[in-house]
Design goal:
about 170 residues, alpha+beta, 7 strands, Aminopeptidase
């Protein structure tokens, strides 16, 4: 029997693995939009470390390897902004992204200031849109992010349960 994937808080020691994974995972997004200057591909290690120190981050591990990650924080308006949900390409379509999304929602739900969850993705990112909708998110806006990217912002109220379909 193989190892199982575990989810835990991201630490500063995870930053380098997360950044390498982020770079790998966002290649397909950059290709989809023909834009390799998107922020996840240009983020520095120092910026990622600051992001982890200033908010919440989770990682999914297979043994010692970080195979998935998600980050976010709660702003002054009570919006838990979830960002950069990434899963290693070889580990996709095994439920890890959904598990991470549920885990970070649970982390934010414990914060009394969090009233809603919000995230965004590109309009052509059908897999991402499908995942977010299956977890109860609904589109609330679309905005041109420059170049060929239109960003879809999705939201759900804190306490809204996911309705993930079983296979």
């Amino acid at each position: 029997m193989g190892m199982s994937v575990t989810i835990s808080a991201a630490t500063a020691q995870d930053a380098e693995q997360i950044l390498k994974l982020q770079y790998l995972c966002y290649q397909s997004e950059a290709e989809l939009y023909g834009d390799y200057s998107i922020e996840p591909l240009t983020q520095t290690l120092d910026a990622l470390r600051a992001e982890l120190a200033g908010g919440h981050g989770l990682v999914a591990r297979l043994g010692d390897e970080v195979v998935a990650s998600v980050r976010g924080g709660v702003d002054a308006s009570g919006t838990a902004r979830i960002a950069k949900l990434i899963v290693h390409p070889r580990m996709q379509r095994h439920g890890i992204g959904g598990r991470l999304l549920t885990a970070i929602e649970a982390k934010f739900a414990a914060d009394p200031a969090a009233r809603r969850f919000q995230l965004f993705t590109g309009h052509r990112s059908e897999g991402n849109l499908r995942l977010y909708r299956s977890h109860g998110y609904v589109p609330v806006s679309t905005d041109r992010a420059g170049g060929t990217v239109t960003v879809v912002t999705l939201e759900k109220e804190a306490g809204t349960r996911s309705y993930v379909k079983s296979a």
